Amino acid sequence: MGRGRVLFPRLHRGCLRAFRRTDRPGARGRRPGMAPGDRTSLAPAPGSPPIASNGDRPARQSAAVVQALLFAHGPLSDTLGWLPDRGFQAAFLGSTPSETDRLRAEEIAAIVAEADGPVLAEAPSFAVAAGKGVVGNATHLRNLYDAGLWRGSALVADIDAHLFGTVLLNAELYPPPVLAAIGRSYLIDRAVVVGSADYHIFVRGEDEDPPPRP
Fold first, then answer.
1. pLDDT for the residue numbered 60
2. Higher pLDDT, 36 or 192
3. Is the alpha carbon torsion for 6, 10, 15, 20 positive or negative?
4. How far is it, in rounded angstroms, from Cα 1 to Cα 20?
5. Other residues' Cβ atoms within 10 Å of the Cβ of residue 7
6. Which residue of 22, 96, 149, 202 shows the fewest CB atoms closer than 10 Å?
7. Concatenated DSSP letters for 53-115?
C-alpha cells in the first residue's frame, strides 16, 4: 500500500475530528446543560457559565482547507495543475469529458431521442437530454425489490410487450426479473464507450411468448 493511501485517510480523520469538536459534551461554543447537537434553545441553562467564544473557528477553517486539498477534483484540479484529482471515483465522475467523450455521449442521446416510444435508460441523463421521460431509478428499484417492497411485474410486462423503443444499460442495476425480461425481449444493437463507462443499447427483438405472470 502506497504512502499516500495511508496518509490521506489519517488526515481526513483529523479533519473530521476538528469539525466535530464543538459537538462533544462540554465543547466550546455550546452551552453546558444542552444535549449534544441541541440548537433549539436560546436561553442558557440555569446556573450555566457564560457562552464561550467561538475559538474553534480557525481550526474549522484550517480543516476545511486541508479537506478541500485532500479531496480536490474536477474544475479545481483542472485550474491548479499541481493539484491532482483525488476525488472519490475521480476517474469516472470527476474528470472533464474529452471531445471524444462528448461526441459519443451525443451519439447516445441522438439514439435515445430517435427511439420509437418511451425509453428505459439506466442512465436517466440521456433520457432527459433527449427530451424523453424518465422511467424509474434503477438503483432505487433494485433496493425496493431486495427489500420485498416492489415486484416489478408491471415493468416486466411492458418490456415483454416491447413498449420501449430503446433500452440503455450500463451497470445492470435493475432487479433480476427486469434484466431477464430485457434479455429475452430485446437485442443488443451496439456498445458505446464514454470515458470509463460502457453503455449498451438494446433494440426490440423478435416477438416471443412472454413467461406467465406470477
1. 74
2. 192
3. positive
4. 29
5. 11
6. 149
7. P-TTHHHHHHHHHHHHHHT--THHHHHSTTS----TTIIIIISPPPHHHHHHHHHHHHHHHT-
Nearest to 181 by CA among 163, 200, 199, 193: 163
In this structure, which amino acid lies at residue 148?
G
Question: Of 116 and 90, which is predicted with more confidence?
Answer: 116
Widest distance between CA atoms in the chain: 80
| pTM, entire model | 0.56
Q: What is the pLDDT of residue 200?
A: 95
What residues contact 22, with CB distance under 8 A and at least 6 apart?
A: 28, 29, 30, 56
Domain locations along the chain: 3-94, 99-204
The proportion of the chain whose per-residue pLDDT surpasses 90, expressed as a percent, equals 42
| Cβ partners under 8 Å of residue 150, min gap 6 | 141, 144, 175
Residues in the chain: 214
State the cell numbers at 80: 491548479
Query: For cell 420509437, what's the residue?
Result: 116
Grid cell at residue 52: 464561550
pLDDT tier at 9 (50, 70, 90 boundaries)? low
- A 10 A CB-CB count for 156 gives 22
The dihedral of CA 168, 171, 175, 181: what is its sign?
Answer: positive
Per the DSSP assignment, residues forming a β-bridge with 200 are 169, 191
Judged against a pLDDT cut of 50, whether residue 29 lies above it is answered with no
Residues ≥6 apart with Cβ < 8 Å to 173:
122, 138, 139, 142
